[in-house]
C-alpha cells in the first residue's frame, strides 16, 4: 500500500464522513486499502473471479459494519481480518463443491502434488513461480495457508498476524514452521533454495 500523503484526510476523518453518509469518503477508504485486501485475497484463493468477488465482499462487509468499527485495531489490520474470514468461507465453499462433484482421485485438492507448469529443465519465470506457490498453498490446511499468506506474502509481523487471526503468537510461529516445511517438500523439486518460502 502506498503511503498516505500528509495532506490527505486521515482514516478517522474519512470514517467519520462515511458514517455521515458521504459515499466519496468511503470510496477513498476503498481506494486506500484495496491493494492490501487484494493481495491477501489472491494469496488465499489465487487470482481470478473468485478472488475478485471476495475482495468486493470484504468491502461490503466493512461498509455494513462501519458503526461497529471502533478503532481497536488499525484499519488495514481490521480489513485484512475481514478479507481472511471471507477467504476462508470461500475455501470452505470450494472444498464442498469439489466433494460434491469430484471423486477423491479427481479432486484437484486431493493429490499431494501436481505437474509443474514447465518442464524441469526449463527456467522458471516469475509467473510460473507464482503459479507453483499457489498450487502448493492448495495443499495446506486453511489455518496454515492463512499464516503463510499473512507472514510471508503480505509481510505482516508475527504479532500482527496473531492479532488478525486472533490466536497467540506461539500458535502463529508453530503453524508457520509446519507450513513452510510442507511447502519446502512440495516446491523443492521445482524451485531453487533461494525461491523457497523462508521463515
From TrEMBL:
It holds the Pfam family Sigma70_r4_2. Residues 131-179 form the RNA polymerase sigma factor 70 region 4 type domain. Residues 29-96 form the RNA polymerase sigma-70 region domain. GO terms for biological process: DNA-templated transcription initiation. Belongs to the sigma-70 factor family. ECF subfamily. Transmembrane segments: none annotated. Keywords: Sigma factor, Transcription, Transcription regulation. NCBIfam families: sigma70-ECF. SUPFAM superfamilies: Sigma2 domain of RNA polymerase sigma factors, Sigma3 and sigma4 domains of RNA polymerase sigma factors. It comes from the Bacteria. GO terms for molecular function: DNA binding; sigma factor activity. This is RNA polymerase subunit sigma-24. It comes from Longibacter salinarum.
Amino acid at each position: 500500500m502506498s503511503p498516505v500523503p500528509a495532506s490527505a484526510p486521515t482514516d478517522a476523518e474519512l470514517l467519520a464522513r462515511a458514517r455521515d453518509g458521504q459515499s466519496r469518503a468511503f470510496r477513498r477508504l476503498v481506494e486506500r486499502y484495496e491493494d492490501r485486501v487484494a493481495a491477501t485475497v489472491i494469496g488465499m484463493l489465487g487470482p481470478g473471479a473468485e478472488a475478485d468477488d471476495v475482495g468486493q465482499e470484504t468491502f461490503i462487509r466493512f461498509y455494513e459494519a462501519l458503526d461497529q468499527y471502533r478503532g481497536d485495531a488499525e484499519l488495514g489490520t481490521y480489513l485484512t481480518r475481514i478479507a481472511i474470514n471471507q477467504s476462508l468461507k470461500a475455501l470452505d465453499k470450494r472444498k464442498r463443491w469439489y466433494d460434491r462433484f469430484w471423486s477423491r482421485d479427481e479432486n484437484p485438492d486431493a493429490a499431494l502434488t501436481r505437474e509443474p507448469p514447465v518442464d524441469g529443465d526449463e527456467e522458471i519465470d516469475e509467473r510460473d513461480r507464482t503459479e507453483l506457490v499457489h498450487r502448493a498453498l492448495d495443499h495446506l490446511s486453511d489455518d496454515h495457508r492463512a499464516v503463510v499468506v499473512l507472514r510471508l506474502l503480505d509481510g505482516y509481523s508475527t504479532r500482527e498476524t496473531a492479532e488478525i487471526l486472533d490466536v497467540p503468537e506461539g500458535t502463529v510461529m508453530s503453524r508457520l514452521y509446519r507450513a513452510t516445511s510442507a511447502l519446502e517438500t512440495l516446491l523443492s523439486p521445482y524451485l531453487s533454495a533461494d525461491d523457497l518460502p523462508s521463515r
